[in-house]
User: Fold these one by one.
Assistant:
Number 1:
Amino acid sequence: MTSKQRQNWIIAVPVIALLLWSVIYPNVAVIVGSFENGLGHWREFIASPADREALRTSIVISVASVFASLAIGVPLAFLLGRFEFPGRRLLRAVATLPAALPPLVGVIAFLFLYGESGVVTRAIQRTFGMAEAPWRLQGVGAIVFVHAYTMYVYVFLFVSAGLERFDSTLDEAASGLGASNLQRLRRVTLPLLMPAVAGSALLVFMNALGSFSAPYVFGGGLRVLSTQILASKTNGAMGLAYVETTVLALSAVAGLGLFRWLERKRKYTLSSKGGRVRKTIRSRKIQILTTIFSAAIVIALVLPHLMVVLVSFARDGSWTTQVLPPEYTLENYRRLFSENELWRPIYNSVSMALIATAGNLIVCFVAAYLIVFRRFGGRGLLELLIALPWAIPATAIALGLAATFNRNDLATARVLLVGTFWILPLAYFIRDIPLVASAVESSLRQMDASLEDAARGLGASWLMTMRRVIIPAARPGLVAGGLLAAVTAVGEFVASVVLYTHSNRPISMEILAQLRALAFGTAAAYSVLLIGLVLMMTLVARSFEERLA
Amino acid sequence: MTAAPRARSEGDSGGERGTLALNGITRRFGDFTAVDDVSFEVGPGELLALVGASGSGKTTTLRIAAGYEIPDAGTVTLGGKDITRVPPERRGFGMVFQHYALFPHMPVEQNVAFGLEARGVNKVDRLVKARAALASVGLDGAGSRPIQSLSGGEQQRVALARALVIEPQALLLDEPLSNLDPTLRQSTRDDLRAMLRRVGVPALFVTHDQEDAFAIADRIALLKKGKLLQCGTPEDLYYAPVSREVAAFIGRGSIVAAEDAGEKAKVTIGGVARELAVTRPKGAASRVESAFVVLRPDALELSRGASVLAWRGRVTNRRFAGGMEVYRVELSDGVTVEVESNTAKVHEDDVVSVSPLKGPFPLVPG
């Protein structure tokens, strides 16, 4: 073994060990746990109508969410990418707004708007003098509705980027060969956009499969796998919870495999000559229609945010049967900052997010460095380890942690974390590994590999090379990845709901508690605070990046 | 223009300058032998070019000299001291990378001062030295410019200044000219040669372009598939190649079978035999069983029409090469030669006579 290889292993072994311990071990524990009485728990699962329904519903919701997101995201990307019309800039500015809503906050906003006692629902009911609400925001339809609103953004961004790279001479070549508009779209444009469509569809599928907040709040009597897992755990049926978790994780991996296989069949490199010109819509009529249409979308996109802000000023308990909350106050915000019990979740969320993010930055930097710059036997394993948490739904990750770190046992490398503060930062850390690692990795890949050689050749020690060359090159990825990790962690709900305790409850759990107590104003105030935190972190990251660049 | 000579005098007083030598270097990657038993020396102030096609092992050889690769066999010595396993950061060599490897997040000055920073030189001193080094490559006052604002030629000079400022024990350059446009290349060759000579340390550079090698190097080491084919002056390689492979790689020309007769060799094409004065590689046998001679385009002449004393052929291609024409002529017996001429006004498909113009012709063993 050369000294360089020895060095590789000295750096790699702690990282690989940490990842094996925190990512692989809990999941293996879940799978092993599902067989703790042979096939007993599995028979129980198969025999349970509730579980069979949950699996079916989970898959139906995921597939429906994919199609709904595609139906919104693809046309919107075309409209904004290919055409010029009044109001285009505004629509483009708000198109990604849903992504800025933490998952639970989006659900609450929909509840305030379209729930049985929501503003839009009541307004329609009053206007038409109906005895009952015109619809109930419940079941598969409601869940897919919320998913489509929050997840179409992935499709929109991927397809927009695909269109951006699309070489306009391809279109010109096709029309030169006599293809009609429709033929061009069907035979040239759409096939070339397939990788973007497939990639974003996979993201939606994975997110919808693991989604917890929408089914939890709007499910009614509906069962999906993620909520079944929590129910089994709460009932103390851990064995069954392990089986359900294994099934959920396997569904996710199967989905991932299917998409990867589809993707491999169609792989093109789009090389751009840049500078695509948007078509101006000439017909007056269509122009007006487009503008009205985009105004409607803008309102639909902004409304949830406005609604949360509005409700955050509503006096708790005052909003009963009215269309809009009748009484407004600053009391909700004042209490968040003055009452100890209400301040606690804010403090918890911020400190846990910061701890998790710091861990992500260190571990993911080392992992990405090894993957990009070093050749050694463990590289494939390392790549797998940092990608894996992405393929495992958060509920499954959380249950694994609950099953593994529930006691101190040095012989089996178990540490008691359940019930302590540290279990949530660990969960957030695991969830955000793929995000941060891929951001850092892509930054490092853009770096010319000979820079490291150059620094060494000029006499720089390993430490100086790191400090002056590698870390500066990784910095954009560290900042972007760190920001994403902090933003996701501060509003995290899915893993938290499985693992939280009263003393480390995060903002998301407190929002849910306030909602249950019908304290809508306080719940909304927390939501606005969460959005504010996300916004603030984004601004800090941006100014940090600007100051250093 | 004062920094480089000063740097040299300081290097002199250190008294550490010595010959860089590679002895029996072999490097394998799995089953593939990238460098196969290669040996050569570069003396202080000497410029040696490692020439070869891509995949010939020239870059790997350079990286072994720099310490980025450790050979599977053989040693690297500097001034007689074995440095085979000394890591690059402790070798004190100056290296110019193919794409220059300038740190994109540092301005020019910090790039140049980086090696001094690594050596713990204080901030003021290293800036003074960096500026002097920049001045020595003709980039006075460019210190605070971002790397992205530099042209290719300027980047190359910054990379050179960065390598020179550390007063290197040897200079290693990987394709230093390949990223420059052709017009810049001509003038840069001369500058580079002058600068490298001034530094007075062994300088080793890799190139796939033999014209670069001819213009800059004192000696050329020609590599093919990891093996060193010949190491010598450009004239040696051109006029006295040791093998058909070297003759085929260096310069243009056709290699035709000949009967070795000591001072002369007889070349028979289409029944017409001509005796040619030949040169042999140094130390080669004075007569060999199977011999070939190299017919270079500038050593042949061509005239319209057939002649009994000359080789006959047909012009298959004619190309203008600035001031002269180069004709490709298909002779009998499947031999094709290229001939330079600025007087023979012939056209494609014309029947012509080709005769040897001036010797001696390089003779290589078959």
Number 2:
Amino acid sequence: MKVFSIAMNTFREAIRNRVLYLLLIFALIMIGSSRILSMLTVGDESKIIKDLGLFSISLFGVLLAVFIGVGLVSQEIERRTIYNILSKPIYRHQFLFGKYLGLLLTILITIGIMAAEFLPLVYLKTGSWEFSLIWGVVLIFFEVVIITAFAILFSVFTTPILSSVFTLSIFVVGHLSRNFLILRDRVTSPIAKWLFTILYYLLPNLENLNIKTQLVHHLPIPPEFIPFAIAYSVTYAAMVLFIATLIFQRRSFV
Amino acid sequence: MSAKKDFTIPPPPVVELREVSKSYHTGFLMRKKRVLKSINLSVYPGEILGFLGPNGAGKTTTMKIINNLTFPDRGQVLIFGQPSTEVSIKAKIGFLPEAPYFYNYLTGWELLEFYAQLFGIPRKKRRERIKYLLSLVKLEQAADLQMRKYSRGMLQRIGMAQALINDPELLILDEPMSSLDPVGRREFRDLILKLKEEGKTIFFSTHILPDVELICDRVAIIVDGEIIREGKIAKLIKEKIDYYEITLSGIEEKELPSSCEKVSVEEDKILVRTRGERGLNRTIDLIKEKKGKIIAITPAKKSLEDILFAELGGKKK
């Protein structure tokens, strides 16, 4: 109940944030413009619409997680509203988890709105509803589940600007993390090999949640892929939030 | 009446700080600054304890430690006999931070609703309580106004309402009157006294001394992270009668006894000052001897302000 109250308050805070609307409008324009862009390209126009649409949903989902997420905890500390919350019978992990869920709810609704523009756009082009694209959107959400957890983690101990940089870096590195395995195989130093292995396992592998190429090109997706991806996202996010809680428990507010 | 009371064992304190120390690291060189130096402090049930001290003395840090917003380096903090880290005890505490700030996007009603939810107060009771509190702090008209439109004084009032949302047994108020106008201050003072009548224990910090003298049962004075004085106000002030002023007539200036010093002369009246009871008695005897007439004797009590200034001066030396 208390987590729910904090989540709903966070949701209320987020939906009254102008950044949300700016990003959403920009995303909707970008998804819409895919129709025009597709006309300018040679080849299968529907592929451009799908590709650009999924890319836009993913990008703006992550940007929302970063720009709203990094401020959620740090603003409470900076504006000292946290004094009023933590002096109530609330565990610090309840506060953090409530903030996290509130932001996820906001992003879920925003992604839903973007999908509500994207799917009809594909329908208008192809003449059929491609419901498999919904799985693409679902996995984008679960990618944001991980990114939001990082945004909260960083905002617990650093400034909003640094948190944004760190979280965006995680997003970029997370999509390139397979390269650590390639690097491991190419380097000769055992220390470097060990380092790349550690980095590969420590950082999130966001490609585990990426089925955009398969969806756009109608490639087969193994049946276990989606459940695995969701389980991976939830487990990874839970671990990140656990670390955030450990840091937050010890945090003094001066 | 107090003679009998003095021998009774005091009830267990509601708040107890034992040897609490706290330091911060500040500046580029991370210099260690000791904010609290092994302080001991007790707040007893049903009393109003004023926590006095200049800015930067450690008042807010103490309150944050009690509320578990920051942690002491050493020492123990007990609230209702339990460690302050115990989250469940917060159900019995109301806290108003210094210059409180709330969510800009919430209305007064929504804010109280949110805090009430954090206490798990059921919906029906929540409504009644919010209505009651808004009228108590005179904000019924601002219930649907967003916080961003609240003035500093209104924020202070809504802050008081949120501190009372759970009908707490213990109220911790950090500088509750600092941003109020004189009328608001008076209303707040009356409210605090009313809450005391309801049996609540109130611990509040301030640097506005007249407030303390008017409403507190006891005071604790903190300077530079050390509690330099703690006790009943009446006793603190009584201890500090350090001179008497005597208005007399009927004797010449040069005939004044040596046990007193002249302050002023007005027509045939002379105002003199003498220190201590012995000095007073000697002066009276000598005036009588010289056939002088005593018009008035006024004990000059030190105000809390004088005490605080004296202590501050002592500290600086």
